[in-house]
Amino acid sequence: MLKLQVEGPKDEIQAFLYDLNRNSNTTLKQQEDGYRINDDGVFPCMRCEMEHDRSSRVEIIEMETVDGLTIRLPLLDVICVRITDEHQMVSGMSYDIFANKKGHATWPE
User: Fold this and answer.
1) Are residues 61 and 75 in contact, defined by beta-carbon separation less than 8 angstroms?
2) Is 69 part of a structural domain of the chain?
3) Could you tell me if 48 and 66 lie in one domain?
4) In 8-106, which ranges are E strands?
5) What is the pTM of this model?
6) H or E element: which one contains 16?
7) Which domain holds residue 48?
8) 109 falls within a domain
9) CB–CB of 74/60 below 8 Å?
């Protein structure tokens, strides 16, 4: 379990925590509003506890076609964001360890 304290304008804190909660690798468990007082004044802050799922660098993404076939894609450094309850955006790097690099336009001679 990680504990995080965020300081700044209240609307920016809320936007940050909303974005953090939309990430499928983190789950916010508890939030506590508060204020930090120092010589410069009083500043809003928020403390929260969260769980972060440390996944491996390679994830297998599965998609199902309308025909019922399953497509499996291994991706590196996957970022998965929930757009709605039914929609997700997935980003990652694809690789092919068996690809013939020679003759490829980007491969150095």
Assistant:
1) yes
2) yes
3) no
4) 26-38, 41-52, 58-64, 70-82, 88-94
5) 0.46
6) helix 10-22
7) 2-52
8) no
9) yes
Map tokens 């304008």 to a residue.
9
Return the exposure string of 38-57: e unless at least 16 CB atoms fall within 10 Å of the residue's CB, then b.
eeeeeebbbebebeeeeeee
Tell me: the pLDDT tens digits for 59-94?
888 889 999 999 888 888 888 888 888 888 888 888
CB 22 within 8 A of CB 15: no
- 39/63 same-domain check: no
Classify residue 83 by its DSSP letter: S
In a domain, 101, yes or no: no
Length of the chain as a residue count: 109
- Token pair of 68, please? 């019922």
pLDDT digits (tens, 9 = 90+) for 18-38: 888 777 677 888 778 888 888
- For residue 107, tell me if it sits in a domain: no
11 and 31 part of one domain: yes
